[in-house]
Every structure is written in structure tokens, then in C-alpha cells.
Amino acid sequence: MLSNTKIALSQQETSLVDVLWNLYILQNDKVKEAFRMLLDTKEISESNDEITKNQQKMVKESFTRAYDELVSGKVKHNARNLFVD
Fold this sequence. Notes:
Layout: H1 16-25, H2 29-72
């Protein structure tokens, strides 16, 4: 696919970003679109991972606070009866 393609470089040394960009612009529209979709999916996944970590942190802090209150004697009720009809 790229064997017949020649890229003229004006510098002796080329950065990896320049090489990757040149590789990207040589691709057809379908390949470019697939690559953009992959990047969007990765960003969403990373965003969801961050949300999950924040939720886990909140739950941990909540349980820690509840446990500390239980141990210190601040909690007087029996939590086993909270969800019983």
C-alpha cells in the first residue's frame, strides 16, 4: 500500500509526530474515519474510568466514615432492620 509512496522530507531528522501525521494523511477517508472513531472511543473510555474511580473514592470515604461512626459509638440504631418490610 505505501510501497509506491515517497515522502519528501526537508529535514535530516524527522519527529515521530511528523512521521505519524504523514502516514495518517496518506490514508483513504474510510481508514481516517475509523481511526477518528477509535480515538473518540478511547477518550470516552478514559472518561468513564475517571468517573468510576471518583465513584469508588466516594463510596470508600462513605464506608470509612460510617465505620468510624459505628466504632466510636455514634451510631445507636440497628442497620440490619433498615430494609426489612
